[in-house]
Amino acid sequence: MAMSGILNSEDIKKALDAFAVADSFDVKKFFEMVGLKSRSADDVKKVFTVLDADNSGFIEEEELKFVLKGFSKDGRDLTDKETTAFLRAADKDGDGKIGVEEFTTLVKE
């Protein structure tokens, strides 16, 4: 499933452009800009499924580096600093990965 089938392509482009510079990524602002925060829990789960590249049921740290590419093939890789900040913001149980509930909580906060 392509992200553009869930979210507006223009919103995705604007959000990617806003965080094009390394170390500028703000996960909460990004999800708000792409319109995910205002979407249904079902749509949030669909986005999670797209970002869970290995279909493990979790978004692991390695997958977080490429999260912007999940929104568009033109998205940049996150820096190590951004990846760590994203993981810290979402990983509430401290297991080193993000489950669908943790992802939904992060998006909706």
From TrEMBL:
<feature type="binding site">
    <location>
        <position position="102"/>
    </location>
    <ligand>
        <name>Ca(2+) 2</name>
    </ligand>
</feature>
<dbReference type="GO" id="GO:0005737">
    <property type="term" value="C:cytoplasm"/>
</dbReference>
<dbReference type="InterPro" id="IPR011992">
    <property type="entry name" value="EF-hand-dom_pair"/>
</dbReference>
<feature type="binding site">
    <location>
        <position position="91"/>
    </location>
    <ligand>
        <name>Ca(2+) 2</name>
    </ligand>
</feature>
<comment type="similarity">
    <text>Belongs to the parvalbumin family.</text>
</comment>
<feature type="binding site">
    <location>
        <position position="54"/>
    </location>
    <ligand>
        <name>Ca(2+) 1</name>
    </ligand>
</feature>
<feature type="binding site">
    <location>
        <position position="58"/>
    </location>
    <ligand>
        <name>Ca(2+) 1</name>
    </ligand>
</feature>
<dbReference type="Pfam" id="PF13499">
    <property type="entry name" value="EF-hand_7"/>
</dbReference>
<dbReference type="InterPro" id="IPR008080">
    <property type="entry name" value="Parvalbumin"/>
</dbReference>
<feature type="binding site">
    <location>
        <position position="95"/>
    </location>
    <ligand>
        <name>Ca(2+) 2</name>
    </ligand>
</feature>
<dbReference type="GO" id="GO:0005509">
    <property type="term" value="F:calcium ion binding"/>
</dbReference>
<feature type="domain" description="EF-hand">
    <location>
        <begin position="39"/>
        <end position="74"/>
    </location>
</feature>
<feature type="binding site">
    <location>
        <position position="63"/>
    </location>
    <ligand>
        <name>Ca(2+) 1</name>
    </ligand>
</feature>
<feature type="domain" description="EF-hand">
    <location>
        <begin position="78"/>
        <end position="109"/>
    </location>
</feature>
<dbReference type="InterPro" id="IPR018247">
    <property type="entry name" value="EF_Hand_1_Ca_BS"/>
</dbReference>
<keyword id="KW-0479">Metal-binding</keyword>
<keyword id="KW-0677">Repeat</keyword>
<feature type="binding site">
    <location>
        <position position="56"/>
    </location>
    <ligand>
        <name>Ca(2+) 1</name>
    </ligand>
</feature>
<keyword id="KW-0106">Calcium</keyword>
<comment type="function">
    <text>In muscle, parvalbumin is thought to be involved in relaxation after contraction. It binds two calcium ions.</text>
</comment>
<feature type="binding site">
    <location>
        <position position="97"/>
    </location>
    <ligand>
        <name>Ca(2+) 2</name>
    </ligand>
</feature>
<keyword id="KW-0514">Muscle protein</keyword>
<protein>
    <recommendedName>
        <fullName>Parvalbumin</fullName>
    </recommendedName>
</protein>
<dbReference type="InterPro" id="IPR002048">
    <property type="entry name" value="EF_hand_dom"/>
</dbReference>
<feature type="binding site">
    <location>
        <position position="52"/>
    </location>
    <ligand>
        <name>Ca(2+) 1</name>
    </ligand>
</feature>
<feature type="binding site">
    <location>
        <position position="93"/>
    </location>
    <ligand>
        <name>Ca(2+) 2</name>
    </ligand>
</feature>
